[in-house]
Structures are given as structure tokens and as C-alpha cells.
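Q: What structure does this chain adopt?
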Amino acid sequence: MIKYYTRACNFYYGSISEDKVKKKFSLPLNGNKLISFDTIELISRKTKKKIKIKNIKKLPLKLKKKVINDLNKITKVKRISKIKFKSFPLLMGILNATPDSFSDGGKYLKSSLAFKQIKKLHKDGAEIIDIGGESTRPNSDTIDSVTEWNRIASKLKYAKKNNIIVSLDTRKSFILKKSLPLKVNLLNDVSGLKHDSKMINILKTSKIPFVLHHMQGTPKTMQKNPKYKNVILDIYDFFEKKLEFLKINKINHKNIILDPGIGFGKNLKHNITILNQISIFHSLGFPVMLGLSKKRFIKELSGSNDSEQRIGGTTSSCIYAILQGVQILRVHDVNEIKQAMKVFNKLIFNK
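A:
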């Protein structure tokens, strides 16, 4: 039997979008009337076809029911415990307390410097701060849990003391368990809960929200010739299977965020395809997060115009993600991205 996937497309923005939603010419994305769509792309492993919303009623009954169910997931308001989504994406600021992260390795190992950076990220507009003590850059090695915890403990305590929403960037149940008394708000496990089988039980009992992340392989192996039959549909199927697994294990589905993992077991073509078609993941019914900041694909696209900070490439790809309704952007340079968003929002959304 052919499996079909539903991707929202042909978007409208700002007052034009609000007017079309009011007149029922388009549907709001994630319940946000400032971004709406009037077309879907119906995708299978062999075919693609764009269909206007008004023509969905003409589809065969079984397929029509599937598409309508997907549309309900695409249009519903997304909610996560303690995290309030707005009309525009939330910014997740990055604090790497590591000696070897690809961008800021070594900068924030010292607690006093990390505290200043946490304060700056929050002041600049980061609604969430992602704190990690183990690098997961390509070809990186796993470190022991005690070392990882010692790197981040003081930073987590400082952030929570200052009433900041904290995301814990770890693959290890030991670290998550140690952090629970501090009341961290979110787990960001880049392994997609594959690295440590004990994570599931902690998530079940603690009910902490978490990011379900896609990565092919491990940080050590992920960039060694990654391959997919169809990168978008393979990742979509991964999420579906993982969500079913979590449901069987009685995990609260209201507390899940999806991240397709730009740069985690993907080459340039894979990354661009994901970004171009990111709106397909809205039909899974959960908030979508992207980490685009300073990634290698920016260097590969910009060639001789590459720069150390890659702010231009990060900004342009973040804006593109906003246009497809991505709800969380994980970035290093919060102030610069916030600045770009404010200008963009005024120009496109008049907000």
C-alpha cells in the first residue's frame, strides 16, 4: 500500500494571511494567523502532487481522511509545558561548556565567563538557553559522565537561579538525573534517545519536555558518507516510529519537540533538502526546532565568502525557516538573530 505524506506549502504572511484566514481561503499554520497556506503537497516515495485546500474533498475517501487528519495536526496550536510559543520563533541561545565545540569551544568552561554569557544571551532575547558539557561536533568522542556534569553543574544552577528557561544538552541519563533537582525545563538529546536506554524511564517518571532529535550514526561517524533513500521521508518515518515507541512507553506526547538535525549525519544536499521542505514535519503535530547556527553547509554554499562567525548565512537560513513556521531556532549569536527577526517581522508581518 502506498504511504502518503502531507506538506503545507504556498504560504501567506502578515495582514494578507490574516485576511485569507478570515475569509477561509487559507488555513493558519500552528494556529498562527500571521502564517497560513492554501495548498498542500501530497508526497509518496514515487510521486509529488500539489493540491489546493478547496480540492481536498475530491480525493478518494481513505486518502481524504488521512489528509484531513494531517491538516488538523498542521493547524493546531502547539504547546509545551513551561514554554509559551509566540507568533514568531523562540530563540534558544547556546552555551557550550566544552573545550572542543566547533564554534565556541573553550570560551565558557570557566564559570565566571559562562555566567556573563548566560546573562548576555538572556538579555539579548534568548527565551531558552541550551547548556551542554559534551561536544557533539563531527568526529568528536564521548566523554565520561562525571567530567560532563562537572563542566555544567554551576552553569545550570546559575541559569535557574536567574529564572531562565534551561535546556539540558546531553545524551546521558546520569546527567539528566543529576539535573532534575535543579528543575531544568527541557532535555535536548541529539542522539534521539538512542545513546542511553535509561533515558526513557527518567522521561516517563519526570515528565520533563524533550527534543526528539534525528541523527544518523554517532558524532564520531555521522559525517562519514551519510546516505538516505529519501532524506525528508526517511527522517519523517524515523519520527513516526520513535513517537509510536514513546507512546508504547507511556511518554507524554504533549511534551515533545522535533528537530530533524541539520548537519547530524547529513551532507550539503541533505541539509538543503531538509531546509527547503521543513514544513512537512508540521503534519506530525509537534513544534519544530532547527539548529542552523554557523553550520558547515553555510561554508559549503558561500565558498570564498565564508567567515568565522557565519552570521550572514545563519541569519538568512533562520529567516527562511521562519517563513515555513519553524517555532524554535537554536543559535549562538542571539542579539544579531533577534535584530534580524525584528526588522524582518516589521517588513513582512508588520509586527
